[in-house]
Write a structure and sequence with these properties.
about 130 residues, alpha+beta, 5-stranded antiparallel sheet, 3 helices, about 40% strand
């Protein structure tokens, strides 16, 4: 039985995507990979498990593709049947890395805290 997913995202920056995935605790491999399961197949630039990767689309965005159910990494497998949560978690980590990078480039020190077990708070201080 296929558990194949293809989740469209708005992520376009590869470096922020890699940083975000690493921040989530995933091991990221770059290159050209084929992710396959039960007759479904996608070519991916990034993989976090042999069963799940990120495929660059024609519009320049990355899609999450693969089969979390058959993932070797338990963190990936835990997203089986939770595509929206996977997309949301990856996007939050991606955006956090992008904002932190932009603020750091503007000369700010950025600290990150989690409040109430749910709210991510970024604080930027000028390095003067």
């Amino acid at each position: 039985m296929s558990h194949w997913v293809q989740v469209k995202t708005k992520m376009t920056d590869k470096s922020h995507l890699i940083a975000g995935l690493k921040k989530m605790g995933f091991s990221v491999k770059e290159g050209t990979f084929k992710v396959e399961a039960y007759g479904s197949r996608a070519e991916c630039e990034l993989v976090i498990d042999p069963a799940l990767g990120f495929s660059k689309q024609r519009d320049g965005t990355y899609a999450i593709v693969g089969d979390p159910y058959h993932a070797q990494d338990k963190k990936v497998r835990n997203y089986y049947n939770r595509n929206s949560e996977l997309q949301s978690d990856v996007m939050l980590s991606y955006v956090t890395c992008a904002v932190t990078d932009a603020l750091a480039s503007a000369g700010h020190y950025v600290s990150e805290t989690v409040e109430n077990s749910e709210e991510l708070v970024l604080t930027a201080n000028t390095n003067y």
